[in-house]
Amino acid sequence: MIKTVDVLIVGAGPIGIACALECKKRDWNYLVIEKGTLTNSLFNYPLNMTFFSSSEKLEIDGIPFISNQPKPNRNEALEYYRRVVTSNKLQIHLYEKIRSIEKTDMHFEVTSDKTQYKSKKVIIATGFYDIPNVLNVSGEDLPKVQHYYKEAHPFTLQDIAIVGASNSAVDAALEIYRKGGNVSMIVRGSDIGERVKYWVRPDIINRIEEGSITAYFDSEITDIQPSHITINTPEGSKTIENDYVIALTGYQPNFQFLEAAGITLSNDEKHLPTYNNDTMESNVDGLYLAGVICGGMETHKWFIENSRIHAKQIAQHIEQQFDNSRS
Asked: pTM of the predicted model, to two decimals?
């Protein structure tokens, strides 16, 4: 049986939830489809993660976000967005994956792994956390290699190599070091990333300078073996003992999914999707983009705090479209 809706939203992260709130205000028949749990990306963040942003900047639709500290943590964010959803009784299907989005003359035909939908408009708000940027080195497929980090305890008394120098890599390095892990950082650049949280960056620099954490700058892993890794450094090739590699080298949107829906991407390394900055409508009429997915490979460009407005932009344009079709 095909289900018919006015607006179908793909992704139940903060921006997808914001889009659903705008639809509910207008009494539209809408539905949010999420392949994982509610706010799936946030759920997969490290257990002890603290946001760079203050709680008020993570609020959606003016609904207050109260946290114990100026910078909320992962659990507080999960609780906030969960309560926004449940208190507003938003229409969301979880653990359902969209397989295809096809535009016809009058509507979209959307197929999931559970059913089929017909929708007048579609909003894609799927984020970028599902596909890691791989190292492309020998041994990367070994079980010891991870592209996500959850907590430090499993790495106590182990030799750990952390690849990267972003917020996630620095947080992991400090946590594992303080839980008794022997931590080395392999960094392609010459220093710790400038975007690292300002209250954390001095900590990691001090730990490196005192020798508690070993950092190999201007370096890359060239080979991964069960008991060791090989690193190309400015001083030449080095081999160090290793139990686990945590490659926190960033993530990327599902570009194949976007292209299959008809969205064009820029022909460069940024892979920027095509959309109207004022309405967020893509090159496919009636198909909108919202949130961090709009940045392509520039995953640092859009965050919750500066893409919340996308929901209102999209809703206002759809409302105008619906009004025009009725007149």
From this structure: 0.91
